[in-house]
Amino acid sequence: GAFSRFLKARRVGAFRQILGEYLAYLLLVSTGFFMLCLPLGFGLERDLLRIPEWESMGAAPFAAFVPLLLPVTALFAALQFFLFEAAAGIVNGILMQLICGIGMGYLSGYFYPSAFFPERMRALGEFLPSGAAARFAQAGVLGQRRCFCFWRRRSGEAESRGADGETKGRAARSAEELTERRMGER
């Protein structure tokens, strides 16, 4: 059509066109994300909302957590953009986004704890973009070095044996230490 001729006349190739569309979509998704974060931060600061782990800390933990979600937002925006563009038609694109989002979220443990799944399903959930995003956000919250990858790095998951002989991963130890510290403060 006319728009294709206009882009060719301006020497805008397919890559630049897709990148421009993605950046516009990312801006839209990021704006929605921040519009959701503003009332949450306000509610936490004014004690209208309560998160038990962040009790009496105000919105400071939330404000530190929001920037960690920006790469996750970019990942999911790219995934949604790809799924929508890969489908034939608007309705099919929306349905594909919905079905893939629910399926990946379920397998990655967003709706049901993945610890109850068989080992192969857990491995699949960790490989999916939703599993990589969850590990990235969890590592950021726990103050660990963050790696945005689609596989689990064995070197980053050093295990140690406690006094009781039980093997625990670094993330589990960090979460337990944080809980113990908060319990000691009360």
Pick out its properties.
mainly alpha, 186 residues, 8 helices
Your description of this structure?
With 186 residues, the chain is mainly α. The chain has helices spanning 2-9, 14-45, 60-65, 70-86, 90-107, 119-127, 129-141, 170-185, and strands at residues 159-161, 167-169. The protein has a two-stranded antiparallel ribbon with strand order 1-2. A hairpin with a 5-residue loop joins β1 (159-161) and β2. α2 (14-45) crosses α4 (70-86), α4 (70-86) packs antiparallel against α7 and α5 packs across α6 (119-127). It starts with a helix and ends with a helix. 7% of the residues are buried. The model is unreliable at 153-172 (pLDDT under 50).
